[in-house]
Amino acid sequence: MPTGDPHGAPGLKIGQVASYSGVPVKTIRFYCDQGLIRPATRSDGGYRLFDDSIYAELSLIRTLRAMDVPLSELRRIL
Known about the structure:
Elements: E1 12-13, H1 14-21, H2 25-33, E2 41-42, E3 48-50, H3 53-66, H4 71-77
Antiparallel strand pairs: 1-3, 2-3
């Protein structure tokens, strides 16, 4: 599993997260815009940077969506 900075600082760009998780970049951006997930920080250039916890969050969202849980309910759960 790709990780961020070895010193624990967030450093996973959205493309890295998408590549490993199988969730398209566009979907990750949508989840961010909907408030379901949040980047740990932003780079100086404004890029979303995530830490390793993003994989568990995306897995939970995908599982709940597979069970037809609506986005409005996901916001409440998360």
